[in-house]
Structure prediction request, 474 residues.
Amino acid sequence: MTVKFGTSGLRGLSTDLVGSVSALYSTAFARYMLESGALQPGGQVVIARDFRPSSPEISATIMAAVKRLGLIPIDCGTIPTPALALYGASIGAAGIMVTGSHIPADRNGIKFYRPDGEINKSDEEAITRFADELMADAEANKVEAGSGDDREAEATALFVDRNLGILAADALKGKRIGIYQHSSVARDMLVTIFEHCGATVFPLGRSEQFIPVDTEAVSADTVTQLARWSDELALDAVLSTDGDGDRPLVADEHGVPLRGDLLGLIVSRFLGAKVVATPVTSNSGLEQDGGFSVRRTRVGSPFVIAAMEDALAAGETGVLGFEANGGLMLGSDFTIGDKAIAALPTRDSFLPALAVLGTAAERGLSLSALVEDVKLPVALSDRLEDYASQRSASLMAHLRGSREQLSAFLAPIGSVAAVSDIDGLRVTLTDGRVIHFRPSGNAPEMRCYVEAADKASAASLLEEGLSLLGRWPA
Prediction:
């Protein structure tokens, strides 16, 4: 069995998660919820899934497992992860989302929610302990196909209502917006909400086969397709999400995707945030905004949520968080005009897209002009796939071994000025450029993040960084 908790949820090969493993971990989660007092016997667990081929079977196994523990499974169908979390919180239910997010269809995952929000790292450790204790328990590993009361329409309506009214009904009148639907569970909701805002919406690229879309490292083929649609249909923007709808993809009128940390900055201004929690991989220019204080974290929504919780415990207000993939988390309640937006401490893709399109429309700017106006350092990122964990561990151990080893490795690129080791190694070079190496927590991948003063310099630095990674012995 090769499943483990990554940056957000349990991940592994679909073949490993189908069957007894999903029964074991959902049983461990249910036991933990009961023994911690988060749920009482007879409590509810809301369950949803993405469109991966393996997700329905895993979901059915989970429903049977939680029912065996005396809990009531609620089937929320195929809805976005933030919609599931919102609905669970509204009825005091725990939640389980079957999704591998942006990773390929041969992999899948399970995300867990307490009634008060997404689990944190200590919760993950507790669930893992319960799973280890139950490993030899036949009942905990029993594979059955369960079902639950169908609440998909109710959960969908609650989430749509949350997003209606964030912008006025005519805020995007005259705008032409493409919705790249692919296999995202958010695809139909996006059409509904942006049509409500007055936009002319073009559903595009709907697929019945699962297509992995990584909003933090959009593939070259996807970028080419976005640009083609933008040109052919004279679009003002193209919107999409990852598979489970918790990471936004917002592309400008040329089909160029906007970085997630840029979306986060714009939504922070849109909401009037006072405290922003974000991973070390987000753009270093955020600290220069001045409108809010920034709390840097390791990569992964549990770490961002923990930083928000610390800020709230200290009496802070106006607290939100976001990741470089664009997923937005609200630690506090916010108000937009007459619209109250309740805290939702899990990643959401809808509010960032609405805030960015609304801000551009209100200021009479195209999205590309809005990007230029923000004036952040140019930040790019990419990854090397099929980069074995042993290989990445060997590389990171070498780079952390001494300053001399790190300097020698980076010598073809530049000289080291400063190093941050919050998550991976983030190096500021003497000329002000930034390069950051980090193994993925979800897949056998090595990620590289860079910052520079202009796009050409950033692109060159990224290419050089990936080349150095590629030359490390396999």
In short: The mean pLDDT is 95.
